[in-house]
Amino acid sequence: MEKIGKGKGRSISYNSKRIWRYKWLYMMLIPVMAFYIIFRYVPMYGITIAFKDYNMFKGVFASPWCGFDVFEKIFKNHNFWLAIRNTLSLNLVSLAVSFPLTIIVALMLNEIRLVHFKKITQSILYLPHFVSWVVVAGIAMNLFSQQGGTINNILTSLGLESIPFLSHDGWWIFTYVICNVWKDIGWGTIIYLAALSGVDESLYEAAYLDGASKLQRLIYITIPCIKPVIVMLLILSVSKMMTIGLDAPLLLGNSKVMSVSEVISTYVYRIGIERAEYGVSTAIGLFQSLVNIVILLMADRFAKLIGEEGII
User: Fold this and answer.
1) CB 75: neighbour CB atoms within 10 A?
2) What is the rounded CA–CA span in Å between residue 105 and residue 65?
3) Which one, 119, 151, 225, 277, has least CB within 10 Å?
């Protein structure tokens, strides 16, 4: 026992000396730790609003507890389930379109051998990601508006009927997906290109000497080498099925397509900001986060069942 005690004492003393030796490096962590504690962990106490009869004049601490009454209220609301349905639908459609397209674009960029042309192409593809959704919505209005929109002007000049891109449920979903793909497809290729740069070139050379075509090298070398990255990004994408940013549906949506454009983020915005029902909006946000965590764990578990590593 004495030897064990001495061993622990020596270990603590050794660690203390190392910490003191690198004290300036550890001090550089203080601002980062302070940021996360102040702006990430302390505000988490606000989650208790979901279990209180919150009164903004009494504050979070003085408001009385009400248990799960707020959750019962939102679960009985038809608009809440409509927002969940629309969120899941838009995310599934966007994932089904953008995820494979992102991989295809990354593979196409990887095949470009002219360095300058490749850099220019990448810059053009990355640029939309940095454009504000306000600007994207303005561009979409000018392109897809039924009255005066560029596309409909071309259609009518050809003798065809105009298409209600922004006022018909199905066409609105199409417009929403197109805008999302255009904005983020280039940015999504970055991780795939990084993974592709790590593929051993000797594998391609050996396959080429064995007579493998470019398509065969793509199928049997490139895709298997980046498969772990594809699985990881797919799991992360699936884990955000219950989350949609506020900007896109709010700016592109209107009263005519409310049945498909009302998602959780816009619903929380209307409840929390316009109606000042902070307890309800907090409960919805907490429910949304819990469902995302459950989906993440299920997707990770499924990936491990089929022989992949997963992320947890």
Assistant:
1) 12
2) 52
3) 119
Q: How many CA atoms lie within 13 A of 194 on its CB side?
A: 8
100: number of CA atoms within 13 Å, CB side? Answer: 4
Gyration radius from the chain CA atoms: 26
pLDDT tens-digit series, residues 252-294: 988 899 999 999 999 999 998 888 888 899 999 999 999 999 9
Count the neighbouring beta carbons within 10 Å of the beta carbon of residue 286. 17
Q: Which two tokens stand for residue 310?
A: 């997963």
Query: Is the Cα dihedral 38, 39, 40, 41 positive or negative?
Result: positive
What's the pTM?
0.85
Encoding tokens for residue 164? 């209600």
Query: Domain range for residue 127?
Result: 69-305
The answer to the question of residue 121 being in a domain is yes
Structure tokens given for 184: 């983020």
Domain of residue 253, CATH code: 1.10.3720.10
In three-state form (DSSP H/G/I as H, E/B as E, the rest C), the secondary structure along 27-64 is HCHHHHHHHHHHHHHHHHHHHHHHHECCCCCCHHHHCC
Contacts of 164 (CB under 8 A, 6+ apart): 146, 171
Amino acid, single-letter form, for residue 188 = G
Say whether both 128 and 242 belong to one domain.
yes
For every residue of 239-280, DSSP letters joined together read TTTT---SHHHHHH--GGGHHHH--HHHHHHIIIIIS--HHH
